[in-house]
Every structure is written in C-alpha cells, then in structure tokens.
Amino acid sequence: MWSRPHTAVTELQRAGGPRAAARCQRASAWWIASSSRKPSIAISAAPTRPDISGASLTLISSERAASGIDLNRVKLLVAMLERRTKLSLSDQDIYVNIVGGMRITEPAADLAVCMAIGSAAKGLQLKSNAVVFGEVGLSGEVRHVPHIDKRLAEAKKLGFEAAIGPMQKQDKKLALLSGVPDVRSALNQFLEKET
Fold first, then answer.
1. Is the Cβ–Cβ distance between 151 and 38 less than 8 Å?
2. pLDDT mean over 95-119
3. Stated pTM of the model
C-alpha cells in the first residue's frame, strides 16, 4: 500500500514513543493503517485557523488543503462534522497533512482526521497514548474496518495503551479498544484540556 511503510514508525521512535507524541501539539491523531502485508502507523495533523479573508462577510469560502489524503474526502468529513457535531468550521481554514510523506487511501483514517480537526477547532488534545481508526459515514457513524486485530496488535507493540475505533459486537470484546458509535461521541469522550 505504501512505498515507505516504516517512515511513521521512525517518526514515532524519534518522538520518544506515544507518550512523547502525546506531548506534541494538539490537532494530531495517531492511527494504524493496514495493508495486506503489515499494519503501519501514521500521524494525521489538521491545524485550523480563523479565516482571515472575512468569509463570513463575503461569498469567499474558507480554505481547505490536504497533503497525503484526498482533498474531496477531507471536505466531505468537514461537512459531516459541521452537520453532525456542534463544531463550527465554516469560518476556519483547515489544513490536513499525513506526516511522513505517505499517501493514505483507506477510509480507516477518517476517524483520526475527524479527531485531529475537532482537536484543533475546540483547542483540546486527544487523550494521551491513544491510537484512532475507523471509517466515518455521512451521518457521523463510525463503521467497521478490516484487520482490527492486526491494528490493535501493532498499536500494543508500539506502546499505545488505548485505541479508539468502531463498536464491536458484545460477544467480541477486544483489549485496548474503546468503541464509539459516532464521531460526536468520540469527540466528547476522548478530547481533553491540555495538561
């Protein structure tokens, strides 16, 4: 899937592991991507800033930019966040970057991108030592993604203590995984004030 699967692992090691990464600026979320070979880790960063063009007074819309992920997917997620949560993003410029030069095509990154955008917009940080994954639908629901067991095993191996992802059936409880039904629940439960 990626030409450089260990780039994000190297970034994690440089940062001193997930605990040191948690001290990094808000507006980012770690997530485990899965390919047919081996799960890999990546960072979604989504800083926002107030639109300085005066978009609320004119017909000019706020800027949206993405690197490493499809811009149309980001715009769709932003529209969903505005509609399904209490986030007001229409007056915010949003920049999404997948760190390490990777190109992400799998929808399992959706929840991490939403959490990073929500983190920046609310001025809160993701609870420390957590990794995030899950596809997000138009109604804000967090959908099941393939290879959850592999993703969780890789997260544990890299030192993460928690994972935020889709709800599991009651008969299938997974260690580390805190399931969320929708994006709004994820934002409310797992974003906290900076310490």
1. no
2. 89
3. 0.77
